[in-house]
Each structure stands twice: as structure tokens, then as C-alpha cells.
Amino acid sequence: MDYLEIGQIVSGFRERMAKLSLFDPLYELGRKRQTDRQNKPIDFMELGLLTLLYFFEQKLMRKNKAGVKDLAQFLLKVTGIFIDLDEEGFEDLARQLIQTFRPPTGKKRDFSFMNWETGQTESVYISILKANAFDLKTNTQYYTLDDDGLELIFATKEFYMEFQLSIHQLVLRKQLEKGEFESALRQINEMRVDVEALQERMVKLEHELKRNIVSEETFTRYKELLEDIYLRLQMENEEFEELRQFVKETKDRVHAETIRQADQRPYELILRISNELEKIHGEHSILFQQSMVLKSHALSAAQESLYYTGLDSFNFDQDIGSLIFSSPLPIESMKGVLAPFLPIQETKIWSLLTVWAEQNIQEDGDGHERDDNFLEIGGDSDERRYAAAQSRLYKLLMEQLLQMMEGQGHAELKLYINLIEESNRSYLLAERSFYDFWIYLHQRSPISAHDRENQQNEAQGAWLDDLYALIGNRSLIVIEKEDKIIVNERFTIQNMLVSWGEIKNGA
Known about the structure:
Layout: H1 2-10, H2 13-21, H3 24-30, H4 44-60, H5 68-79, H6 87-101, E1 109-115, E2 120-126, E3 129-135, E4 140-145, H7 147-156, H8 164-178, H9 181-212, H10 216-258, H11 265-312, H12 316-326, H13 331-338, H14 352-355, H15 380-405, E5 410-412, H16 413-422, H17 432-444, E6 447-448, H18 449-452, H19 465-471, E7 475-486, E8 492-500
Antiparallel strand pairs: 1-2, 3-4, 5-8, 6-7, 7-8
Helix pairs in contact: 3-4, 5-6, 8-9, 8-10, 9-11, 10-11, 15-19
């Protein structure tokens, strides 16, 4: 019995020591001894915690580029009035801090201890910071928090509700990467609680907007608060989108792995995670839309309410009359007080520009009826462009037809359509002009350049000049066949056979 109690006491000793090992870099910083230019001691442990908070903020704000100089500027702004160092001194501090959390060798920190559960000396390896990117142009290394760094940050404080959902999103991604699907499900449940708490806060905030805005100061404060909420929800929504894609990729990978295995539980868990995450994402999207409504409509309504409240509480005798008659104001100040209540100055003048402006002159009794309609836009230019396009199309179709007839001396419309479908001009079969071309050939058969001279008054004008030029001194005969061709859902045409007729002289 005593042995069992001892075993329960020391159970999980390694995990507890691993948690304590996270603080080892901070204790190492606390043992450093360095002074500033006024010989005041510098507390490296406090600066180490500031460094962790800085990189955690960068991770929350989705900023991936933070290096030694960025950290040095942050420390200068926060501690510059207490620590007397120049910019180079702060850069040296930042470099020492980063090298403590991430050794220059790139290896993880080693923490050794006696595991009293197993009776053996063991080691754990921790990584607080990791390299994130490298800029070749400026020779700058960027860093970001590693998994152990996040755990160390979470262990230092229970974070406020504003960033609770963002923290859960970061932890959820890490759990999915490690394959801890059951823990991820619990994490999603905590995220649902966070979203519900945010919904309650948004409802309370909407009521506060309608009730508490009684001055410009409170209006400005609530406006800034709504803008912060909107930006935070926007970042969370972007993270949800990335999590959705990440879960989809994980689901595909797990599905491929479980096909060959008898245990299907990992795939069932990832399916539940995907479904639950979609539900929370939907609720959060509604919350995001609600923040946009509050930012626009509710805030505008509160501003109008503030305006009308000011009008209702305004008293002319008290606010204006007593001020004028009780206080001996100078003339200049009197004008400023009375100006808002005086009418706008109006001057009746006539302008020479009006006299010299263009006039609409129309003679009486000329017998012409006045036309007030607008002129037609386009006119002949549009017709010329259309005629040119039709001419190019008809020439192209005729060239294709003649090429098809070169070998056998005849061509069939069905085979011609098949040829067009297999070429890169299959889009022509969806155009009305293609069928107009064949209808024209059928109606004018037999077709020859000699007959074209008697058709100069046609509506087509010069469309067909190129077509007849290709025929030359020959003639084309187009004959209908019995079968019909269903080209597509829109167009159906009778099959035709095209052959050469007799040769005409050029006279």
C-alpha cells in the first residue's frame, strides 16, 4: 500500500520537470550581471519576459518578420527611460536575449534532471525561439516563438479574454500537427465557449452604445473599441480560414493512412473535428458580420442620437442670450457667437457668362418641326465595324470550305462542321453568322463572281467581295440533303453538299 502511494506521488515526474525546464532560460538570464552607462544593474530576467511577450504579440498579429533590430527598438521604447543605453547597446541586449532562448549553434537547450519515477538521469530538450525566415538582401535573421515558447507564455499568466480565441487557434494547429485529435476536440469545445462569451459581450456592447453615449468623448472611446474588435475578429476569421484548409489536408492524409489499417478511430476523430470547426466558424462569421453592423449602423445611430440630444437640451436664452448680455464681449467675439444663427448671405447679380453662353436659336415660321430627340450614337462607324468583321468571317469560312474541296471537288456540310469542331475555331459553331453564311450560299446557288456584279445594291454592301474573289471564275453549287445536323442545343441546320459548277470566263 505504501509502495502504491509513493508510485502515485512520483507519477508523471518527467512531465512536471519538463514544465519547470521551460523557465530555465529565464533563470539563466537572471544570473547575468551587466550595468548600463550609469552603472545601474540590468535585470535580464524581466527583459527576457518582455522579449517573449514581444514575439507572442508578433505571432498573434500574424507578423512573420521580427529580428534583433526590431526587438532592440521595442526594448528601447519600453525601457529607454530606465536603462541608459544607446541603440547599439540595446541591440547587444536583444542579441544576448535571443541567443539565450535560441543558442547560436541552432540546437535545442538541454535540461538534465533525476527522474525519481524511474530512478534514472534524463534530459529534456526545449526550444523557445526558432528561426523563421532570412533576408539575403539585408543579411537579417527573423525569429518566431516555438511550441515551448508558447507554453512558457501560457504558463506566466491566464490571458485576458480578448486574445483567448486566438490562443486556442494557435494551440489547435499545434495539436493537429502532432496528431493529438482528442485534445484538439477539447480545444474546439473551449473555442465554442469563447465564441459564445464574445456573442454575449457584443450584445452588451450594443446596449451600451444606445445607452451610454452622451458626449463626444464617450463616442470616440466606443468608436475606437469597435474598430479594435473588428480588426481582432478579422484576424481570427482569417485564421479560421487557414485552419479549415489545414484540417482538410490533415483529413485527406489521415484517410490515406487509415485505408490500410484496421483502426479507423483517427479518421472518425478528424471528421468530428472538421464538422465542429465548421460550426464554430459559422458562429464566428455571424459575430464578424455583427461587428461590422455595430461599426457602421449602430455607431451612426448613436451619433445621430447624440446630435438630437444636444438640440433638445439647447436653450437659446440661457446659452446665447445670457452669454451676450451678462458678459461684456468684444465685437469680434460677438460675431463668432451670433454667426451660426444668422442666415447665409445672398447677393442677386447677373453674370456675363450667362449672357455670352451658347443660345438655342430657332426661327419662327420656317415650316420645320422641332426635333428634341437625342442623336443616335454610333451610326455609320458601328455599321462599318460590323461589316468588316462579317467580311473577315465569311472569307475565313470560304477558305476552309475551298481547302476541303481541293481533293475530291466537293464537300459535305456535316464533315465541314466536324472539321471546325476539331480545330481551334469551334467557337464559331455557337455564332449566328456561321449559319447565315451557309443560308446565303444555299439561297444564291449557283454562286459565281459574274453574278456578284448584279448584286451591288444588297444590304451586305461590300461584305462579300472577298468571298467572291476566292471563287474566281468558277461557280459553286449548293444542294440540300435529306438529313439534319443538330450542331448544339441552339442551332440545327439541313445537311448540304457543295460542288464545283461550270467554269465562267472573266467577261
